[in-house]
Amino acid sequence: MAKIRLLSSAGQAAEFLRMEIMNGNIRNIMPGVLRLERELGINRKTVDSALYKLEKEGILVGQGVGRRRKIVLPKGAASVRSLTIGILIGDRSDRNVDYLIELRHELEVVGHRVIYSSKSMSELDMDQRRIARLVKRTSVDAWVVVAGSRDVLEWFSQQDKPVIALFGRRRGLSIAAVGPDKAPCFAAATRSLIDFGHKRIVLLARPRRRLPVPGAPEQAFLDEMTANGIKVSDYNFPDWDESIEGLYSRLEKLFSVSPPTALIVDEAGPFIAVQQFLAQRKLRVPQDVSLICTDADPVFAWCPQSIAHIRWDSVPAVRRIVRWVAKVAVGEKDLRQTYTPVEFVPGDTIGPAVQR
C-alpha cells in the first residue's frame, strides 16, 4: 500500500501553484507575493516558502530584488503560446468597468496581449454585418464578446476563431459563455413590486434584450406579471431607440397618459438617466415611482437612498474566461456555458404603489 503523503501548508501551496503553471493558468511570470497572499488566503511566510520550493525545482527563476520570478516549463511540458485576445465591447463605457479591467490585468499577468475593439457594438448600431467587418480586420487569436445580441453571437458561433460570450443572448448556441443567470431575480424583483400593489410596471430593456424575442430574464418578468393576473402589453415592455433621446421620448409617452408606478431599468447608465427624468418632473422615489436597476454599479454606494438592484459576483466570470483562454492557448476546445450566482437586493427605491 502506498504511503499517504502529508504536505505542509507551504507544500500544498507549492503543489497548487505547480499545477496552475502546468495547466497553463499561470504563464511566463509568477504573480507577486502580495497578490498570491491575497488570492490564496495564506500568509506571506507560507507564500515565500512555496515559491522557494518551486525555485529549487527549477520551475521558477529569480530575476533580482523587486522583480517577479520567471516561469521555466520543465522539458516535455506542453508549450503554451502567448495570445492576442480581443475584447469586443458592448458600449464604449465598458472599458472602465471593474471586471473588464481585472480581466485584462489577469490575462496580461500570464503573458497574453489584450486589446479592445476600436468601436463598440452600440456605436455600430449592433449591426451584425458592420461588426463582422470590424472583427475580420482586427488581428487577434480569440475574442471575448461583451453583451452581444442574438444575431451577433450566432455569427460568432459559425466562425473558426475561438470566442467566449460574456453576458449576451448566448443560450442554445454552440459557443463558450459565462455570465449571471438573472431570470430568477427578474421574477423576484417583479414579485416584490406586485406585493407592494404595483400593476403598472414597466421594464425598460435595451433592444438587444428584446429582439428578436425577449431574453430569458425579460421573459421571466413577463411570465411573473401574467402569473399574477396582470395583462401585459407593449406598455409594460416598450420599444425605444437606444439613445438618451430615444429613452426620454419613450418616458415622455409613458408618463403622459397612464404613468407607471414602477420602473425596472436595464443597466446603470439608463437607470441614472431615468432618475434624472423623474427629478425634472418632481416625481419622488419611491413615493410616486418605485425603481429597480437590473445591475449593480459602484456609484450606488454614494446614493443616500439604497438602490434596489440585481447583484452578481464578477470574480467567477473573470476566472472562467482566464481558464478558457488557457485552454485555447494549448489548442483545447471549450464550448461550456456557465452561470454565476445572482441576488436581488431590495432597497429604499421601492415602496407601495401610489393610488391614482
Describe, in short, the structure shown.
By secondary structure, the chain is of the alpha/beta class. The protein has twelve helices and 13 strands. The chain folds into three domains: 9-71, Winged helix-like DNA-binding domain superfamily/Winged helix DNA-binding domain (Arc Repressor Mutant, subunit A, Orthogonal Bundle), CATH 1.10.10; 84-180 and 313-341, 3-Layer(aba) Sandwich (Rossmann fold); 183-311, Rossmann fold (3-Layer(aba) Sandwich).
- Biggest β-sheet description: 6 strands, parallel
CATH fold title of the largest domain: Rossmann fold
Shape: elongated
Strand content: 5-15%
- The count of DSSP E runs of length 2 or more, i.e. the number of strands, is 13
Order of helices and strands: HHHEEEHEHEHEEHEHHHEHEEHEE
Write down the overall mean pLDDT: 90
Show unreliable segments. Answer: 1-5
At CATH level 2, the architecture of the largest domain is 3-Layer(aba) Sandwich
Strand order of the largest sheet: 4-3-5-6-7-12
Kindly provide the radius of gyration, computed on alpha-carbon positions and rounded to a whole number of angstroms. 24 Å
Structurally, the number of domains stands at 3
Number of helices: 12
The CATH fourth-level homologous superfamily of the largest domain: Response regulator
The percent range for helix content is 25-40%
**Helix-and-strand structural type:** alpha/beta
Separation of the first and last Cα atoms:
79 Å
